[in-house]
Amino acid sequence: MEFFKRHYEKIILGVVLLGLAAAVAFIPLKVANEKKQLEEKRLSLIPRSVKPLTNLDLSLPEAALKRVTVPVVIDFSTTHRLFNPMPWQKAADGHLIKYDDSRIGPKAVTITKLTPLYLVISLDSVNMSDAGARYVIGVQKEAAALPAQRVKKGNYCKLNDKNDSFTLRKVEGPPEDPTKLTLELNDTGETAVVTKDQPYKRVDGYMADLKYAPENKTWLGKRVGSSPLLFNGEEYNIVAILQNEVVLSAKSNQKKWPIPVNPASANNPNAAL
User: Fold this and answer.
1) Can you list the positions of beta strands (E) in the chain?
2) Whole-angstrom distance, CA of residue 236 vs CA of residue 172
3) Left, alpha or beta for 132 (phi > 0: left; psi -120 to 50: alpha)?
4) Which is it for strands 229-231 and 217-222: parallel, antiparallel or unpaired?
5) 100 has pLDDT over 70
6) Measured between alpha carbons, how far is 155 from 139 in angstroms, rounded to an integer?
7) Among 193, 194, 176, 191, which residue's Cα sits nearest to residue 122?
8) Distance from C-alpha of 141 to C-alpha of 122, rounded to nearest angstrom
């Protein structure tokens, strides 16, 4: 007891120190346990469901960038008439027509009919004599420039005879009654076959019927080189008639205007071939 009386302060201090040491050793364990509990609560309260990234849709901004690169064009002449008012012209029947080149002038001309013009070669007859057979072969040039040249012309020829249009190269069958004649055409060098029942035909040009609705004018049977067409205060010459268009030339400045065939208003030339 005497020992405790003399050293009780030291004993109390030692117990306190032991308690402090135990507390210091317990604190890290406690902190680690608390951190673990807090992490478990955090994960339970805030669940993470991360979705994979997808490709970004940039179509809208790319379209906007493309629009920026295209300059804005404001048209005040063709559709809007703010600074260029549209003049009007009175037609032959009194109604008003917008005065633009699609309704007035050469572009307003329409083709109402297109007729093929043929080169026709036919075997008309056979003349027999002491000198042998002579064949009467008719040639009609419907596309000729002069009317007198369009009349059918008979040519008397024998084998290998040559005239202005052809050369007779071959005769098949009896000379007095041949089944087939073979000709060589002078202009193209092509071969033409002619029988009594089947003449040779080739398209050499076209003839057109034209109409100009604003002035109610029509022209029938016009050919290349025909008299000029007078409309809209101007004269126009026909310089070409093709299978799909008629070409007009202004007499004042020689400017050419192709007029296309409209199947709805002109007959199909292929149907006649």
Assistant:
1) 88-90, 96-98, 109-129, 132-141, 153-157, 166-172, 180-185, 191-194, 200-212, 217-222, 229-231, 234-241, 245-250, 256-260
2) 50
3) left
4) unpaired
5) no
6) 8
7) 194
8) 12
Q: How deeply is 114 buried, as exposed, middle or buried, from its count of CB atoms within 10 A (0-12, 13-18, 19+)? A: buried
Give yes or no for a contact between 256 and 245, defined as CB atoms under 8 angstroms apart. no
Residue 169: the pLDDT is 93
Structure tokens given for 184: 């060589």
Name the band, by pLDDT with cuts 50, 70 and 90, for residue 271: very low
SS3 39: helix
Tell me the one-letter amino acid at 54: T
Structure-block tokens of residue 268 = 């199909």
Q: Which residues on adjacent β-strands are paired with residue 120?
A: 140, 201
Distance CA 181, CA 160 (A): 11
pLDDT digits (tens, 9 = 90+) for 186-198: 989 999 999 989 9
Instruction: Quick: pLDDT tens for 214-230.
Output: 888 999 999 998 999 99
